[in-house]
Design goal:
single chain, mainly alpha, Growth Hormone, Chain: A, disordered N terminus, disordered C terminus
Length: 445
């Protein structure tokens, strides 16, 4: 007899088994005991290492080949190419076997890496090859993000979801710090060919890890026949929810006001306020990343998070108040210390926001909800443009203060607009997918 291809959602399993498997203690990896999350996380971690190494290696290649900072910036901007397709990718995640989609995404990334490695070793790589391959990879990167979040919510019980998201965010921050250093070191000492060979091996290992994830067929829960109708169902569900519009608003807000600081404007801040060189600017960025990693772990290690939206709001208030403090330009040592605290509040805020979204979205619409949430990423380029313009015309301190003030005002507005964020506890809406529903989903008539 064939094995079933659908596992019951984590929340449904949790209702049956109770809290006996609740993760706790000070071990952030304790969530890996749940289901096949260890394979979901392993695949994600290996892929993130490859991506972060690839970003720095290709940037160094472009700079050494052209000497143009503009062309280096362009290769970074290409990472956002596929973001606009987020809602469509969310529909795919809700309609098709998530494991098979994950394998396809990983295999596609491995194939691109292999092609680029062959071009490098045969000495036929040209500049446009790098741009085409990065653009092609970015088209499925957003699908990968939505898939990982949906698979995490499928595998981990609702009461421990904050631990999994905290570990995932910490893995990203760690990959950004260590992956960049390792990638840059291999490039400088061994050359582009060996650096990209290492990247390719990581992509292949991520693909192998994804093969171990349990299949999850959810197509029968999407009743619409057309893509347009399926997307409309997702937007309608978000619009009718008390919690989701506010959570998605925060997704855009933090991309617009806070993330530009560590995604492009740290160079402007370090140079404009303290006349720092590359090493000093790198240390400021590392301070923020260390704080973010610690903040994400702090949420992940909590035994229970009753209302992640409340943590998100408090974290956002502290995050933006600290930006106003940074705008006062204290001495460099104090500025760095505040930057660590700023990163801590940001890491906690981001994890709480993602946990809130995953809890508030039932399994049958989770992909589309997270796909719609991905549109908030466009707040980042808008924030970069606004921050760059203010820095050029008025100065870096004014830029930090302006973005901080906008974020603070917008956070207060969100609390007034969506009071349910503070008032209501976000319980696991996947519980609507009862065991009976799950079994019928895997055996559609």
């Amino acid at each position: 007899m064939a094995k079933p291809t659908h596992t019951e959602p984590a929340a449904a399993q949790d209702e049956i088994s109770g809290d006996s498997t609740r993760a706790g203690g000070l071990n952030p990896f304790s969530v890996l005991r749940f289901g096949d999350y260890k394979f979901v996380w392993s695949s994600e971690a290996l892929s993130l290492w490859a991506i972060e190494m690839e970003i720095i290696v290709l940037a160094m290649f472009v700079l050494s080949d052209t000497g143009s900072p503009l062309l280096v910036g362009l290769i970074g901007a290409l990472k956002f190419t596929g973001t606009l397709l987020g809602p469509f990718y969310g529909l795919m995640v809700d309609r098709f076997d998530r494991k098979k989609l994950q394998i396809l995404v990983r295999a596609f990334g491995s194939t691109l890496a292999i092609v680029l490695t062959i071009l490098i070793f045969t000495d036929t790589l040209e500049l446009w090859h790098a741009y085409v391959i990065v653009a092609a990879g970015s088209m499925v990167r957003m699908l990968d993000l939505v898939l990982v979040q949906a698979l995490t919510a499928d595998a981990v019980p609702a009461h421990s979801l904050h631990g999994a998201i905290g570990l995932s965010r910490s893995t990203l921050d760690g990959a950004r710090v260590v992956g960049s250093i390792v990638g840059g070191t291999i490039f400088a000492t061994l050359g582009l060919d060996w650096a990209y060979l290492a990247i390719t091996v990581l992509y292949l290992m991520a693909t192998l890890a994804s093969l171990k994830v349990t299949s999850r067929v959810v197509a029968s829960t999407v009743h619409s026949e057309s893509i347009r109708t399926g997307l409309r169902e997702g937007f309608r569900y978000v619009r009718k929810s008390e919690m989701l519009p506010g959570l998605i608003f925060f997704s855009f807000l933090i991309e617009f006001t806070a993330f530009p600081i560590v995604n492009g404007l740290m160079t402007v801040i370090g140079d404009g306020l303290f006349d720092l060189g590359g090493t000093g600017i790198g240390l400021l960025g590392a301070a923020a990343s260390i704080g973010a990693l610690t903040g994400a772990l702090a949420i992940g290690l909590r035994p229970n998070v009753g209302n992640p939206a409340r943590i998100m709001i408090i974290g956002s208030l502290i995050w933006h108040v600290l930006m106003l403090t940074l705008a006062l330009v204290p001495p460099l040592w104090l500025f760095t210390l505040i930057l660590v605290l700023w990163g801590f509040s940001g890491g906690a805020t981001f994890v709480a926001m993602v946990v809130g979204l995953l809890r508030a979205a039932p399994s049958k619409t989770r992909g589309r909800v997270m796909g719609i949430r991905s549109l908030g990423i466009y707040g980042l380029p808008l924030g970069l443009l606004l921050g760059g313009w203010i820095s050029e015309d008025i100065g870096s301190a004014a830029m930090i203060g302006t973005l901080g003030a906008i974020g603070l005002i917008a956070t207060v507005f969100a609390v007034i607009k969506w009071p349910a964020l503070l008032r209501k506890s976000i319980r696991s809406s996947p519980a609507v997918d009862s065991p009976r529903t799950s079994r019928s989903a895997s055996n559609p008539k």
